[in-house]
């Protein structure tokens, strides 16, 4: 079987494969950049817990207040139980 591609076609295929490989390498580098990924997670979390003005969302404040109240009740209950 003879290769019927022209040198220009072969060069174009090589260039396409280089571009695809470069994209793959960039994706892998981004996945391995732990610092950058952690910063992005923090930014995403901040965006999901605050309003556009930067203040905490009411539901987040409510959940935090509930957790604090539960912790206080648990501590008081354990304190009374041990005395």
What would your notes on this structure say?
The longest helix has 26 residues, at 7-32. The radius of gyration is 28 Å and the shape is elongated. It is built from three helices and no strands. It is mainly α and 83 residues long. It has helices at residues 7-32, 34-49, 58-82. The N and C termini lie far apart (91 Å).
Please summarize what this structure is:
By secondary structure, the protein is an all-alpha fold. The chain is 81% helix and 0% strand. It is elongated and about 90 Å long.
Dominant shape: elongated
Low-confidence stretches: none
Q: In which range does the helix fraction lie?
A: over 70%
The helix tally amounts to 3
**Can you write the helix and strand succession as a string?**
HHH
* Beta strands, count: 0
Ends apart, CA distance between termini: 91 Å
The percent range for strand residues is: under 5%
Largest sheet: none
Mean pLDDT level: 91
The helix/strand class is mainly alpha
Multimerization status:
single chain
Work out the radius of gyration: 28 Å
